[in-house]
Amino acid sequence: MVLGKGASSSLSMNKVDGAEEMVDNSNNFTVLVADDDPLIQKLHEMHLKKFGLKVQVVENGKKAVDLCHFGATFNLILIDKEMPVMDGAEATKELQAMGVNSLIVGVTSRDSPYEKQAFMEAGLDYCFEKPLTADKINFLLQELNKNN
Ligand SMILES: [Mg+2]
Questions:
Q1: Residue 21 lies in a domain
Q2: 86 C-alpha to center of ligand 1: Å?
Q3: CA 89 to ligand 1 centroid distance, Å
Q4: Does residue 69 form part of some domain?
Q5: Dihedral (C-alpha) 71, 72, 77, 83: value to the nearest 10 degrees?
Q6: Where 4-aspartylphosphate occurs, residue numbers (predicted)?
Q7: How far is the CA of 6 from the CAs of 2, 3, 10, 61, in angstroms?
Q8: What's the 32 CA to ligand 1 centre distance in angstroms?
Q9: Distance 83 CA to ligand 1 centre (A)
Q10: Residue 7 C-alpha to ligand 1 middle, in angstroms?
Q11: Between helices 134-147 and 38-50, what is the axis angle to 10°?
Q12: pLDDT digits (tens, 9 = 90+) for 3-41
């Protein structure tokens, strides 16, 4: 459980997947999920929404770059490595070059240290392996609460 700023008064018990879970709905953090796999899109969107995050999904890096280019802002950008049109590494470089003020986190199934390092060097803040888990999301919420 991660407490956001002033979260203590706004914790609520929500029914999630049939289980009672503490959900912190106090944050207004926005997340952009860039992934070309429809299953991962759905899974990650569902998971992130449970944490009270506002989620937008795009299917390639170019769309992520375009959104930010035309003024959309996100607290967190979760970006896949392998995508058509523009892959995660190239999109990350573009986003960093544009000076976006987002935490940019790679989420990839590629586990070779070389590939992960190359992805990191494109300008990621962190790189996680798929799929996102509650632990990983909690970690990212902590980072967002530190920086926002
Ligand atoms: Mg992919």
A1: no
A2: 11
A3: 12
A4: yes
A5: -80
A6: 80
A7: 11, 8, 8, 35
A8: 15
A9: 5
A10: 35
A11: 60
A12: 444 444 334 444 444 443 445 545 789 999 999 999 999
Report the separation in Å between the CA atom of 37 and the middle of ligand 1, taken as the mean of its atom positions.
Answer: 6
Residue 72 sits at the vertex; the CA angle it makes with 69 and 77, to the nearest 5 degrees, is 90
User: Which DSSP letter does residue 13 get?
Assistant: E
For position 37, which CATH number holds?
Answer: 3.40.50.2300
SS3 82: coil
Let me know if residue 104 belongs to a domain.
Answer: yes
Question: How many domains does the chain contain in total?
Answer: 1
Q: Range of 130's domain? A: 28-147
